[in-house]
From TrEMBL:
Record key words, sorted: Heme, Iron, Metal-binding, Monooxygenase, Oxidoreductase
PROSITE patterns assigned: CYTOCHROME_P450
Region listing for Disordered, in residue ranges: 1-30
Protein name according to UniProt: Cytochrome P450
Family: Belongs to the cytochrome P450 family.
Alphabetical list of SUPFAM superfamilies matching this protein: Cytochrome P450
Lineage: Bacteria, Bacillati, Actinomycetota, Actinomycetes, Kitasatosporales
Keyword Phosphoprotein: no
Length: 443
């Protein structure tokens, strides 16, 4: 699934911007200040406040070549939707490629661990995709999620009780580390029947995978991350190959799965599917919960109402998904020469769909900068993608985030953000963005 990028990203000599009126190519004159020439998708400025950049992209350069990453940034809601709904012209093959080149030493660490991830789910444009996807959706369909609510509430209740005790003893707590990050991991483990690893390890492996493949780590950091990713992969391979998984577990379902030609799934592809689901199924939701809590604590939405007013927590989660989703971008690659947003793109053009910006597209959402939990078109955002690869974990993520918000508002009614919370560290990867700390203080 995640393929190491062996080549450095294609880098252009200057900034190429293509708007509806046609391409503007070549290096821009230093006398013609172009704000987009300064855009750094990993820079602190963009990570902390991406909205002015996303607005500029959408308004001035809806199809924009980013020379730092070699990606074409697609920012209008209608263009992104069109890409997602046309998998023949816009293939998913590059969805999980490493964005930062992996040096030979790092590739060696991964190779030693037997790291190999053939296309399985998000980056699989082949006919095997739909059957594999059905294995996932069976575990996360609406009925299963409705039945899982008591499990989610129980785990959320336990974590909030521990957080309550910590605040009472020490005056403060970090709701990300103590709650947001742990809840989805423990829920996923119960739903998928994972027993022989502790949540802290699974979280460490998952976060390392995100940083190695979607981040801009230094070579030394890449080596550290590769060790963790290798451990994760080895544990998954051992679990899949042991053949001892309970039949009702996710690994057991993959073992029973048959490909379109009737052959069983090879273990490498089963590992690849698990690798993605075990990461996607917890890290993203932890990030969503962190943002949901931080926005609810900072914005003028009455905290006690979230616990009591039916549907408010769900609506708040939906607005956060629209305006500040955890999965900020997703990738596609053009299968052939194609027109998009008034521009001609060559075959093999790597696209970065700016999902976060599309949730603030004024063509679709009125007053996009305002958090309005009851806006009529609330579900028109693309935070979970669309079409054939649309996120099969959307119901689980939405449910967990709403349960988490209600549990926090109910169990920690008096808390407020610690001073300086706005300046706390942020996760800023190519496709994932969220607060890394949500510190609150008691009375
Ligand atoms: C807030 C949490 C989440 C967000 C924002 C999110 C977002 C996304 C996005 C944007 C995609 C790509 C969709 C596309 O290409 O059209 C995706 C795919 C996927 N997500 Fe999620 N996701 C979340 C939670 C989850 C959870 C809880 C699971 C657990 C099962 C999950 C499993 C997957 C899988 C398996 C795919 C690939 C589907 C396919 O290719 O058919 N995600 N997700």
């Amino acid at each position: 699934m995640i393929e190491p990028a062996l080549e450095a990203p294609a880098s252009a000599g200057g900034v190429r911007t293509v708007g509806p009126r046609g391409p503007l190519t070549g290096p821009l004159s230093p006398d013609a200040p172009d704000p987009l020439a300064l855009l750094d998708l990993f820079g602190d400025g963009f990570v902390r406040d991406p909205y002015p950049w996303l607005d500029t992209l959408r308004a001035q350069a809806p199809v924009h070549h980013d020379p730092r990453t070699g990606l074409w940034l697609i920012s209008r809601h209608r263009d992104i939707r069109r890409v997602l709904l046309d998998p023949a012209a816009f293939r998913p093959d590059n969805a999980q490629q490493a964005v930062t080149r992996l040096p030979m030493a790092v590739l060696r660490v991964l190779a030693r661990a037997g790291f190999q991830l053939p296309p399985a789910l998000a980056n699989n444009g082949a006919p095997s995709h739909s059957g594999l996807r059905r294995v996932v959706t069976r575990f996360f369909n609406a009925q299963r999620i409705a039945a899982a609510v008591p499990v989610i509430e129980r785990i959320a209740g336990e974590l909030i009780a521990a957080t309550r005790a910590h605040i009472d003893a020490h005056g403060e707590s970090d709701l990300f580390a103590a709650f947001a990050q742990v809840l989805p991991c423990r829920v996923l483990m119960e739903l998928l029947g994972i027993e022989d690893v502790d949540p802290a390890t699974l979280i460490r492996w998952s976060d390392a995978s995100l940083e190695l493949f979607w981040g801009r780590p230094t070579p030394d950091r890449q080596l550290e991350l590769a060790e963790l990713v290798g451990e994760f992969h080895q544990w998954l391979s051992a679990t899949v190959r042991a053949g001892a998984a309970a039949p009702e577990s996710f690994v057991g379902a993959l073992a029973r799965h048959r490909l379109p030609d009737g052959t069983p799934l090879d273990p490498r592809t089963a590992v690849s599917a698990c690798f993605f689901v075990f990461i996607a199924g917890q890290s993203t939701t932890g990030q969503l919960i962190a943002t949901v809590l931080r926005r609810a604590l900072a914005d003028p939405v009455p905290w006690p109402d979230l616990a009591q007013r039916a549907g408010l927590a769900e609506a708040w989660v939906e607005e956060v998904l629209r305006r500040e989703p955890p999965v900020t971008t997703w990738r596609r690659v053009t299968a052939r020469r194609v027109e998009l947003g008034g521009a001609e793109l060559p075959a093999g053009a790597e696209l970065l769909l700016m999902l976060q910006g599309s949730g603030s597209d004024p063509e679709v959402f009125a007053e996009p900068e305002r958090m309005c939990p009851y806006r009529p078109d609330i579900r028109h955002h693309l935070a979970f993608g669309a079409g054939r690869h649309r996120c099969p974990g959307a119901s689980l993520a939405r449910t967990e985030a709403a349960v988490a918000l209600r549990a926090a508002a109910r169990g920690l009614p008096e808390v407020r953000p610690a001073e300086g919370d706005g300046q706390q560290p942020m996760l800023g990867l190519l496709s994932f963005r969220a607060p890394l700390r949500v510190t609150v203080v008691g009375k």
